[in-house]
Automatic annotation (TrEMBL), chain A:
UniProt key word Glycoprotein: no
InterPro entries for the chain: CSN3, PCI_dom, PSMD3_C, TPR_PSMD3_N, WH_DNA-bd_sf
SUPFAM superfamilies: Winged helix' DNA-binding domain
Pfam families: PCI, Rpn3_C, TPR_PSMD3_N
UniProt lineage: Eukaryota, Fungi, Dikarya, Basidiomycota, Agaricomycotina
Residue span of region Disordered: 1-57, 145-184, 533-565
Name under which the protein is recorded: PCI domain-containing protein
GO biological process: regulation of protein catabolic process; ubiquitin-dependent protein catabolic process
GO MF annotations, alphabetized: enzyme regulator activity
Family membership: Belongs to the proteasome subunit S3 family.
Keyword Transport (UniProt): no
Amino acid composition bias (Basic and acidic residues), ranges on this chain: 1-54, 149-171, 533-556
Automatic annotation (TrEMBL), chain B:
Taxonomic lineage from the root: Eukaryota, Fungi, Dikarya, Basidiomycota, Agaricomycotina
Stated name of the protein: PCI domain-containing protein
Species per Swiss-Prot/TrEMBL record: Sistotremastrum niveocremeum HHB9708
PROSITE patterns assigned: PCI
InterPro entries per the UniProt record, alphabetical: 26S_Psome_Rpn12, CSN8_PSD8_EIF3K, PCI_dom
Top-level taxon of origin: Eukaryota
Amino acid sequence: MSKEVEMKSVDEKKKEEKKDQKKDGKNEKKDDKSKDKKDSKDKKEKEKEAEKPKPLTPLQEIKLNITLIERSVVTLEPRFTHRVLRTFTTLKKKLTPEILRESINAVYVKDNLIKQTLLSYLPPPPPPPPKEEPAAMEVDTAVPAATEAKPETKAETKSETKADSKTEAKPTETTPAPPPTDPLPESEVYFRLLLIHWLLTSPESHPKALELVHDTITKIQTWNRRSMDSLAARVYFVLSRVYELLPTVELSEIRPLLLRSQRTASLRHDAESLAAVIVLLLRNYLHYNLYSQADKFVAKVTFPESAGNPQLARWLYYTGRIKAVQLSYTDAHETLQQAIRRAPAATTAPGFWQAVHKFFIVVELLMGEIPDRKTFRHPVLEKAMKSYFEIVNAVRTGSLSQFQASLNAHADQFTEDRTYSLILRLRQNVIKTGIRQLSLAYSRISLRDICVKLHLDSEEDAEYIVGKAIRDGVIEGRVVHEKGWMECGGGKDGYGVEVSEAFGKRISFCLELHNESVKAMRYPLNAHRKELDAAEGAREREKELAKEIADGKNLDGDDESMGDF
Amino acid sequence: MSSSLPQQYQDLKSSFERRPCDLQRCGQLLDSLKLSLAEAGLLIPQGHHDLGDLTVARDILEIGAFWSIRSQDVPSFERYYAQLQTYYNDYATVLPPSSRRSPVIGLNLIRLLTQNRIADFHTELESLPPKELVGDDPFIKHPVNLERWLMEGSYSKVWNAREEAPAEEYKFFVDSLMGTIRNEIATCEESAYDSLPLKDAATLLFFPNRSDLLNFAQQRGWQIELTAEIIIFSRSVEEKAEIPKRKLIASSLTYARELEQIV
């Protein structure tokens, strides 16, 4: 019962919000058109400013990001926020408490509760800063503040209508005339994210980060703004990260919270948070090796299609791992390959790249294939994959003793990578490759020799193993028990239905890739205008042409009539 | 916790540990104990409970698991195992480790092996900490080794290991495990041999006498030539090379359609 009620209330909220957004959207669009030109000019100027002096100071960058976020909220275009989040990784490395304090001071001109709470997470300021700096900053802020003044007031009224019922979220806003430069909640969340990342840099401040992250999540959930989705997804990510880093708390503690967020996110069609939370839950389960639970979760949940590539890559990685554990290697291989394709470039996310490749190679081996030598020469992978390279070599040559030796030598690394049990399963593959090589090299070989060459314990075992290999289709051959040898048949020829199937698979993959990329194209908003103009001209030309043709037809008709006579 | 529970628990413990164990009495006690556990909210515990209560509840469930095996009731074992999961996973950090944990897990692994649920077997194995996986715990090592030998095809090792079961309860699964192995070997023989002397077939399939082998051969539909004392395996009919017309036409049509869209 309570769930239904909850769902209803959520739905109602959603409807209200949609109405709000529609209204706002309409009003804004009118204004936007007139403003668009100004805005775009401003933007260009700003971008020029941003790009020309190459090392943009972090302070400027933060301010630029704030304006971008606000623009994305105002224009209902999430891609501005995405742009901000893309720079996040590089920006967070440059953060210092001074920069954070200055930027907060610059954006929150008025002294209010939000500013105080934000600043309270920073260490107390060192001796009062020299007076020149703040003055210089105010000059800086004056420019964006002026251009942004109009949209903000509108957005403020919008948030106010909603915030009315939850005054506790924004107590200062109820005053009759909202100050023009009061930033949006999205900006606040952005600052909170920056703060959390800064707090995470030193282990002493981790508990503070924990507190801040929980506070932020409750705020996000009460605000319930669609324009905040991509930021909210980031906050969930950070939440899990804090729990991983802090030794005093267990990662499993946030599972109920994440499950709850997953439900609400899917009810609110908040695809970005949903994707993030699903991935985090999977990570959470796999951290404790709870594969069966993770599998059940995957079966119940549908991953949002609109999710970004990084989340999709993570999702594919985790599902690939689950499938590998459950012995469906073909599926796992496909999924992990997709994960590699979707993953960001190797140099930007080397950790993920390495982790996926480790599983990918083990799965490839388990499928009976030998991975490309090229993979191990990749600069990012070369060092990390050294031990895996040894395993691959052992499997390739079919030498059980070498396999065992490298397995023992690198056991610690494999357990750390969580590939140990998968690699243990490779033992039978080593034997199979060995047998296959023997079957290729000999047309007849005694079981005794097989036993010696593969380091098997007894002839009896060898007979069973060969029998199994024949049944599994690893080799073509026959065992002659009375004589104690194995006779090997010839291999298959390269003709048949399988070839066309293999080609068909590749062709369909290429076609799908083409279709996907067509679907993924973005078109600028008013680009069709030009085409329309061009079409107009074309239509006129067509009219003329039609006229001419008509004239010509007449002539033709004349001709015909003439001909008849 | 209700007052009768501790008394019944002691009862159960003593009748379980008595040799030979009193299965009927245990079953009755378990039934009533489960009822009182459910009343106390300990059957599927949530949130915080008294540590002593939790340990007692875990003990009861573990005894239940063993009792199910002894009374040859596999579905009941599965249920007890599922209930124990909460204690082994969620309360692992608070509860003192149980001495019966690894036997119960090992038994479950063997159960999955005999039911030929290899994927579940590996999922279960993966959820164990790696230390236990490579460690010398005989209860876990036994099923892990069995699985490896089965996968390799070293069936004789599996056969020889049947007497090395680390606990009484493991033997219950031995017979069905041997049945699984025999079937595996039989399918291997069918594809790997043209013919096989009866005597060798008996040793390969671990049959002590001839009549068992003949029965088994009849079940699988093997051809037996009693005069020559050999089994002839009928070759599965060579697949004919047939061109899948429909499939080829369909794929050509899709290519044409897709190309049409692109150009």
